[in-house]
Amino acid sequence: MILLTHGDREYLREPGEELQTDLGVVEIPDDARPGDVLESHLGEEFRVRRLRGPDLFNHLQRTGAPMLPRDIGLVLGETGIAAGDRVLDAGTGTGVLATYMGRVGAEVITYERNPEFAEVARENVRLAGVTDRVEVRTGDLTNEADPSGFDVLTLDTEDAPDVVARAGELLVPGGFLAVYSPFIEATREVVETARGTLSDVRAVETIQRELDVDERGTRPSTGPVGHSGYLVFARNV
């Protein structure tokens, strides 16, 4: 997949496809490469970009509210997910987190209970180019999880505490747990469960505040505080 841009417009397409817009029709060659400039039949120029993580976040199909890039960044940074790691994920949803982890080289098995959501996630995994590293399974992780050890366990599910109770069985020694929740009550339950079997348990709220920069000066934005959710991190002993 490649990204075609014209000003602030963006279009996700496959090489060899045709793009039809009010700015004209663009024939995308099979060998289109990042940096190429393609011209529509009306003479408008479109630039070719290579897809990056934020581009995928903006263009993947959605079945709900996915984790935001800043939350995903914390998961990657706090757990140290890297190439060659085995990751067990539950609550696939749109598959944004799973594709990010696959793009850094991790081998991901992700579970989604809703068959329709799982199909959307599989298509997103294909668009992200990580079908060789991310496997989307339809089902309940609690019943179907591979018993062998994983380096990282990531959860975005209502029954996260039940899975966290088994984290010691699922993770290799020193493996990391990361749990996302939009609700503070659920976060507390995850923390209390994790303290029973894991170490280094801590919870954080993710907030991002933008800056207003203009000719008068620079100051924090007076707009809404950018709260997105809560993350719990822990480590297997």
From TrEMBL:
* Molecular function, one GO term: tRNA (adenine(58)-N1)-methyltransferase activity
Keywords in UniProt for this one? Methyltransferase, S-adenosyl-L-methionine, Transferase, tRNA processing
Specify the tRNA (adenine(58)-N(1))-methyltransferase catalytic subunit TRM61 C-terminal domain's residue ranges. 69-215
Q: Which Gene3D superfamilies does UniProt cross-reference here?
A: Vaccinia Virus protein VP39
What Gene Ontology cellular component terms go with this record? tRNA (m1A) methyltransferase complex
Per the UniProt record, the source organism is: Halalkalicoccus jeotgali (strain DSM 18796 / CECT 7217 / JCM 14584 / KCTC 4019 / B3)
Swiss-Prot/TrEMBL GO biological process terms: tRNA methylation
Q: What is this protein called?
A: tRNA methyltransferase complex GCD14 subunit
